[in-house]
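Researcher: Checking consistency across runs. Here is Tricarballylate dehydrogenase again:
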Amino acid sequence: MLDVLVIGGGNAALCAAIAARRDGATVKVLEAAPKFYRGGNTRHTRNMRCAHDHATATLTGPYTEDEFFDDLLRVTQGQTDEALARHMIAESKAMLDWIAEQGVRFQPSLGGTLSLGRTNSFFLGGGRAMLNALYRTAESLGVEVEYDAEVTGLDIQDGMFLAARLKDGREIRASTLIAASGGFEANIEWLKESWGPAADNFLIRGSPHNRGTVLKLLLDNGVEPIGDAMQCHAVAIDARAPKFDGGIITRLDCVVFGIVVNKHCQRFYDEGEDVWPKRYAIWGRLVAAQPDQIAYIIFDARSLELFMPSLYPPIQAPTIAELATRLELDPAALTQTLETFNASVQPGTFDHTILDDCRTEGLTPPKTHWARKIETAPFYAYPVRPGITFTYLGTRVDADARMRMADGKPSANMFAAGEIMAGNILGRGYAAGIGMTIGSVFGRIAGQKAARHARN
């Protein structure tokens, strides 16, 4: 009988499959997507965040375990399993070398406004190149991969996995199961159970295949849930992006350089609260709370070259009033908002690479950093909507990546890795690159533990 069955085809699944195979197990990977679209959200990633004690060839300095944990606490506002988070961070120190040993190559980190040169390692060629390397390694080791292999049923008895049923009617039995099949962000009806009709206006940044089928099967079979169904990694993306699979190129990194208004031309949050990698993932939820789930980033010519643009060009006009007309907003209202903002801007030294002293005074909400008057024509805007990356409701696991059942007992032979269990670490919020950390670390752990369980 097969030793380890891995459901999923992204970073977490491949790390699990490789680790299990290297530990001597027979391994099969079931990927619901066609081969071209394999890899779930990993296809759209760029980097991962790992603790390290020294600068490396691709990182500019140390990033200690304590600093990593402090960053995690800040973005989650304390909503994390501390013991499990610290375990993940400690294990992450070995991941950069381990991932490289599996054929993944890294490039020098990006600097500037992303502020990631010291903390995050970037994949040479991006997420698809990373995936291709992992697939090559897995297949060379003898891991069997099936595509278009959607799991529609699980045979689980008293916390023990027995078999998976596929859409084509086949049944696959295995000694252990590793679930690495992502969240339910592409399941709009499931999102609407928590978000209501607003979810109809959400855009899904990643795979349309992440519908949460396996997650629901596990929870229905007595696995203990973790996380809030409304919590997710949600960023503000170009409103012109496709409904699914727009990926990283639809993300907008220009919020800190301008102001963000809703359809009534009102600001609703501090655009300069913190450095962008620690705050970009709150903007999806902020826009989701606005009327019709739409907002507009407004900036001027001075800021046009300071950020990576979206796939789509910004909307441009010679005046704020004309810009409003092109956005189908009230010209008088947008002009008034800009004049009020500009009047509140205080003198300072603008530096987009640090928390500078450019701020507003007497304005609600304030802009606490990078506040400059928006007055240099031409003027630009991007329309944005909530872009959901992945959901945080998932399966509870322990330090061995073993799922826990609702009665508090560990599962007999079921493990989880990646977005399907990310809610253990991410109760809310997000820091750039941490999704790949969760997937890699717990994927490797799940693969090793599953292989040893099958062998014993």
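Researcher: Does this match what you'd expect to see?
Model: One thing to look at in this run: The chain has eleven helices and 19 strands.
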